[in-house]
From TrEMBL:
ANK repeats mapped onto the chain: 1-33
The UniProt record lists the keyword Repeat: yes
UniProt name for this protein: Uncharacterized protein
UniProt xrefs under SUPFAM superfamilies: Ankyrin repeat
Pfam families xref list: Ank (PF00023)
Key words of the record: ANK repeat, Repeat
Signal peptide from the UniProt entry: none
Length: 80
């Protein structure tokens, strides 16, 4: 059907797999042969949040609260 791994993860509600794919650059806007995005195939509200990007915003907000500015500075010091 022309589904990507992200389409399959969304359809089967494998949230950890979908998060891993998205963090590693999977395109959530890509369409399969039936012109469906992973969001269209998503099973459950939590998967729709993950694919819609809302969950990432919540996670980043929590990181800012608990780690302060450290979460922004950390990538600068990866070479150490």
């Amino acid at each position: 059907m022309g589904n990507t791994p992200l389409h399959c993860a969304a359809y089967r509600a494998h949230r950890h797999c979908a998060l891993k794919l998205l963090k590693n650059g999977a395109d959530s806007k890509i369409r399969n042969k039936n012109s469906q995005t992973p969001f269209d195939l998503a099973q459950g509200a939590e998967m729709k949040l993950i694919l819609g990007g809302s969950l990432e915003k919540v996670i980043n907000k929590r990181l800012k609260r608990y780690e302060g500015l450290l979460w922004m500075v950390r990538p600068l010091f990866r070479f150490l």
